[in-house]
Amino acid sequence: MSVATTITAAQGAVFDDVEVGQDIPSVVKGPMTTAHIMRWSAAMENWHRIHYDWQYATGNDGLPDVLVNGSWKQHVVIQLVADWVGDTGWAWKIAFQFRGMNIPGDTLTAWGRVTDKEERGRWGLVDLEIGLRNQKGEESTPGTARVVLPRRGGPPVPYPFDPAALDAP
Questions:
Q1: How sure is the predictor about 10, in pLDDT bands with cuts at 50, 70 and 90?
Q2: Among 132, 24, 1, CA closest to 81
Q3: pLDDT, tens only, 72-89
Q4: Is there a contact between 140 and 73 (Cβ–Cβ < 8 Å)?
């Protein structure tokens, strides 16, 4: 199920408009190049040769190519959730696993789908299935997220968010 709703980052999602089964707007990056991967490595000061030295990655470690950095994939998955909740919600918990490799030439799509929702006090909790797939549909970074969203006409989710506030009157 997909609900065609345009949500700006400033607005963010509203709990009352969320439906179980709904897809959230995806984030697409790529196609990735060795230059993208090397720039991220340099910015993160991650000098492991599997991210920039093709001969080392393929010859020494037996990899198919240099690899997209796990920290970059983490950033994109978090961007997906943060973009959807916008300035009015809170990305409370995000968990994922690195289960596959991504290489230059891959176009990566971060995706999410609502799996559950629950009214809690003045706000709503929404659970998501999230992940990162390449252009072949291969999942490399599956995960889950829990977000706190404002209710229509209710107060904004405070920053920083205190989970104890969920049970406050």
A1: low
A2: 24
A3: 999 999 999 999 999 889
A4: yes
Task: Choose among 80, 83, 92: nearest CA to 126.
Answer: 92
Distance CA 59, CA 153 (A): 59
Give the pLDDT confidence of 26-63 residue by residue, as tens digits: 999 999 999 999 999 999 999 999 999 999 999 999 99
C-alpha–C-alpha distance, residues 21 and 92, integer Å: 20
Distance CA 126, CA 110 (A): 18
Angle at Cα 57 formed by Cα 54 and Cα 60, nearest 5°? 120
Q: Which of 110, 98, 94 is nearest to 145 (CA)?
A: 94
Domains within the chain, CATH numbers bracketed: 15-31+73-167 (3.10.129.10), 33-67 (no CATH)
Residues 6+ apart with CB under 8 A from 37: 51, 52, 66, 67, 68, 69, 72, 104
Which residue carries 């991210």 as its tokens?
51
